[in-house]
Specification:
- The protein has one domain: SOS response associated peptidase-like (hypothetical protein yedk fold).
- The chain contains 3 helices and 17 strands.
- The mean pLDDT is 93.
- The protein is mainly beta and 181 residues long.
- The protein is 8% helix and 49% strand.
Length: 181
């Protein structure tokens, strides 16, 4: 289960609807559950970047629900009713069991998420998938990385394609730096 990730850049360039868009973000070296994180979502006829809190409040647990298995989105009522509220989470890496995983060039990438309105503001959950070859020795799940060519699909009508074809590109890994925790 991914419970820490980062977005250390103050902006991200993403291609959406055949346009290169630049989104500003507050840099964060360690985003944890209940922290604010940068989230891209469609709004009317454009895309916006908002700060949202990570984790949904649920009646059966005092801890927030932070992750959702991509394979069960369409079967669990908790997520099924929010399938039309998909979002992209800006990230430059994530942490698992003492290791920081990131893209080889260190660029920003996007993770799949769902968001919803709650009485205390908007909140999101991160989708997870089976791990790629780099992450598998460390954990049985990893964040669902959306391939750049599927950003529009995830935010549009072809979202199931992302679940069927998550980004399986190799990642680089480095030992976690203790001062981040």
């Amino acid at each position: 289960m991914c419970s820490n990730y980062s977005q250390k850049k103050d902006e991200a360039k993403l291609k959406l609807r055949d346009k290169m868009l630049v989104f500003g973000a507050v840099p964060r070296a360690n985003i944890r559950p209940t922290d604010l994180g940068p989230v891209i979502l469609p709004e009317q006829d454009e895309f916006v970047c908002r700060e949202m809190r990570w984790g949904w409040k649920v009646p059966w647990d005092e801890s927030p629900l932070i992750n959702a298995k991509s394979e069960t989105l369409t079967t669990l009522a908790t997520f099924k009713k929010h399938l039309n509220q998909r979002c992209l989470l800006l990230a430059d890496g994530f942490f698992e069991k003492g290791v920081f995983f990131h893209q080889p060039a260190g660029q920003t990438f996007c993770l799949a998420g769902l968001w919803r309105d709650e009485p205390n503001g908007q909140r999101y959950v991160m989708l997870t998938a089976t791990p790629n070859a780099t992450v598998a020795p460390y954990h049985q799940r990893m964040p669902l990385i959306v391939p750049p060519e599927f950003y529009d699909a995830w935010l549009g009508d072809d979202w199931q394609r992302v679940i069927a074809e998550p980004d399986r590109s190799p990642l680089e890994k480095v030992q976690r730096q203790p001062e981040l925790f």
